[in-house]
Design brief:
Blueprint: E1 4-10, E2 15-17, E3 24-26, E4 30-33, E5 40-42, E6 53-54, H1 59-68, E7 71-79, E8 84-91, H2 94-106, H3 108-140, H4 148-156, H5 175-189, H6 203-222
Parallel strand pairs: 1-7
Antiparallel strand pairs: 1-4, 2-3, 4-5, 6-8, 7-8
Helix pairs in contact: 1-2, 3-4, 3-5, 5-6
C-alpha cells in the first residue's frame, strides 16, 4: 500500500482554527493541512500523535522510512529570506525508521562509493557552469576589468548560497540575472556601500545613495573597449 503523505506547517499565520476541536492554532504552531490556507487540524487532532520526527540530512533514510510507513507528515517551516516553506523533517512510524536504518546500514558502502563518484561529476559540471556564466558576463560587459567576470561568477554561483547565480533563470544565462550579479558585485567592490553601515543609515537609504554610481559603472562596462592604434 502506498504511503499517504500530509503537510504539517509550522504556520506563519497569526491565527488558524482546528477543524476538529476548533481550538486556535497560533503562529509557529503545527497545522496539518494540504496548504496553509486550506482547512486542517492542530497536531493533537491529527493522525501523527506519537510519531517520531525524523530530521533531514540523510536522503536514503528519509526515502526508505517514508516507504515503510503508512503515513508520512512532512514538516515545513517558513523561510523568511527565500519567502517560501522549507522542509524540516518528517513524521513517520518508529518501526519504519528502524527498518530503514537496517537497510541503510546494509548498503552503506555501495551508496558511499556512488555518492563520491556523483560528487566528482557535480564538481566538474559546476566548474563548467561558472566558466560559462563568466563568459556570458564578458559578452554583455565587454569592458569589465580583466578576469573580473570570473570573480563575479564564482560569487554569484556559489553552491547553497541562495544567490542569483543559483536560480533557474541564471542557469539559462538570462540577461536580467547576469545584470543582477554584476550589480551586486559593483555595489560591494566599486562603491562605498559597505563602509556606510554603522553610521545611522538604513540599508534602503544606503542602497539609494550608491544607485547612481552602480548604474554609471555598469554603463562603462557595457561599452566596447577602445583599441589604442598607437600601441
Amino acid at each position: 500500500m502506498a504511503t499517504v503523505s500530509q503537510n504539517i506547517y509550522l504556520t506563519k499565520k497569526e491565527k488558524l482554527k482546528c477543524s476538529k476541536c476548533h481550538s486556535p492554532i497560533l503562529a509557529g504552531e503545527a497545522f496539518v493541512g494540504e496548504t496553509e490556507q486550506s482547512r486542517g487540524t492542530c497536531f493533537s487532532c491529527s493522525d501523527f500523535v506519537g510519531y517520531p520526527l525524523l530530521p533531514p540530512g540523510n536522503a536514503a533514510l528519509t526515502r526508505r522510512s517514508k516507504k515503510h510507513s503508512a503515513l508520512c507528515g512532512v514538516l515545513l517551516t517558513w523561510n523568511q529570506r527565500r519567502k517560501r516553506f522549507a522542509r524540516k523533517g518528517q513524521y513517520v512510524e518508529a518501526a519504519a525508521i528502524e527498518k530503514a536504518k537496517i537497510e541503510c546500514a546494509a548498503d552503506q558502502k555501495i551508496r558511499d562509493e556512488k555518492n563520491a563518484k556523483a560528487a566528482i561529476v557535480r564538481e566538474k559540471q559546476d566548474k563548467i557552469y561558472i566558466e560559462n556564466f563568466a563568459i556570458a558576463i564578458r559578452e554583455i560587459y565587454p569592458s569589465c576589468p580583466v578576469k573580473r567576470e570570473y570573480a563575479i561568477a564564482q560569487h554569484a554561483c556559489e553552491k547553497h548560497s541562495g544567490r542569483v547565480g543559483r536560480t533557474a533563470n541564471a542557469k539559462i544565462f538570462d540577461k536580467q540575472m547576469i545584470d543582477l550579479a554584476v550589480e551586486a558585485h559593483i555595489r560591494h567592490m566599486e562603491t562605498n556601500y559597505d563602509a556606510q553601515f554603522g553610521k545611522g543609515k538604513r540599508k534602503k537609504e544606503i542602497r539609494s545613495d550608491v544607485k547612481f554610481d552602480i548604474k554609471r559603472v555598469m554603463m562603462q562596462w557595457r561599452q566596447l573597449p577602445t583599441l589604442d592604434l598607437f600601441e
